[in-house]
Amino acid sequence: MPPPSSRIETANSLSLHDYRTRFLPFTLNSVTANAESPSFIEIKFESSLSIAPAHIQECFHLVASTSASAYAASSIGWSPSKKRKEMELPDLRYLLVLGPSQGTKIVEGFLSFMLTYEDGHEVIYCYEIHISHRLRGNGIGRHLVALMEAVGRNAEMEKSMLTVFVENEGALKFYDKLGYKKDEYSPGPRKLRNRVTKEPTYIILSKRLRSSEAG
Fold it and tell me: DSSP readout, 51-115?
C-alpha cells in the first residue's frame, strides 16, 4: 500500500481503466433497476482527458443553466472561461448520466470529483453535481454521490467534501440527509472596516469516510 504522502498521486496517475477497476469495481447504473428511476439512462465513468468534447460542452451547459446566476451573486463570481478551464483539470473525474436524444446520447446530469488535499487532509472533493430538470426526483443525485463516496472509501480518503451556495436551500437539505455537515474549514463571517459583518455566500460541507488516524 502506498504511504499517505503518495496515495493521491498514485491514484491520480492510474489509467481510466485501472482507476475504475480499483475504485469502482461494480455496475454504475444499478440505480436504474429500482422503480423510481428512469430505465433508459446510462451512467458512464470518464476523466477530463477522455470525455468526448460534445459531452464536456453539455456538462458546461448544465452548470451555466442551473448555477451561473448563483455563482455571479456569490463571492466566487462567474467566469465561463475559468469554469471551462477548471472542468478540464487533469485529475478531474466524471460520472456522466446519459440519456437518449435523436439517435444519440446526451448528458442529462453529471458529478465531477477529484482525489486531492484540502487543508492537509486527503479528501475526495465534489466539484460539481447537476441533474437536468426532467430527471430530478428519481434518486439519481443520491446514487452519484454514493458512487463518489465509494471511490473515496476505496481510495482510503479521509473525507468527502463539497461547496454549496448558502442560497441553495434544497441542496443543503439534500446533503444534510446524506450525512454532510459544515466542515471545520468552512469560511465564517468577516468583520469589515465599517464594523459591518459580512456573511459567507457559500458553505463547505464534509462527511467522514475514515478516521484521521487510519494509515
Answer: S-HHHHHHHHHHHHHHHHHHHHHSSS---HHHHHHHHT-TT-EEEEEEEEETTEEEEEEEEEEEE
What pLDDT is recorded for position 3?
Answer: 53
Cα distance from N-terminal residue to C-terminal residue, the chain: 10
pLDDT band at 213 (very low <50, low <70, confident <90, very high): low
> Residue 137 above 90 pLDDT?
no
- Predicted confidence band at 146 (pLDDT cuts at 50, 70, 90)? very high
Write 67-70 long-range contacts (CB < 8 A, 24+). Answer: 67/130, 67/165, 70/165, 70/167, 70/168
The label of the residue with cell 469589515 reads 192
CB-based contact 153:205 (threshold 8 Å): no
